Amino acid sequence: MVPQPSTLLSFTHSPSLAPFAISVEEYLTQHPEYDGLAGGAMVFDSEDRLLIVQRAAHDSMPNLWEVPGGACDSTDESILHGVARELFEETGLRVRELRHLVGPGDGHVVFKTGRKGLIICKFTFEVDVESTGVVALDPNEHQNYLWVTEEDCKEYQVEREGNVVRFQFTTAAQQATVLEGFRLRKKANPIGR
User: Which of 48, 76, 156, 158 could form a disulfide with 152 if both were Cys (CB 3.0 to 4.6 A apart)?
Assistant: First the structure.
């Protein structure tokens, strides 16, 4: 892993996210039922479209779509720092603020990895970034990106420049988290919707 400039991890977070402002080790000590943690970042643009990324054809779950994110590492200062790092590594976007937890039920999704059978707990957060202007994908992880609406996510397709792009989420839990993110966003900003 390449060290990132300290400005990468210069962000604020909502007080409601204090339980995630701890190290991965500390969280796993409190929750021994998990072998690891992962984080996802829901990034919306000024038109309330969500950024989704397509997994690389050579990676696990090839060609499927998800929000940016990945494993929180023991070297991350906190779970929140892990989410900010993953978003930067995968898209080049810098987190300005982590706003709130997003997810079905109590906000976490538990899954078993295919390769090693580890039990991973994933948290997804709505984040505000410095700019949504330029998305720079890491080709080792993702091959394409889209800005999508809630309707696009329900129809599994988006029309861009006269072309229809069809997409499928990595898991049903990923799609449920995405739809919950749109619901929470509308609830927080009901005017004009």
Answer: 158
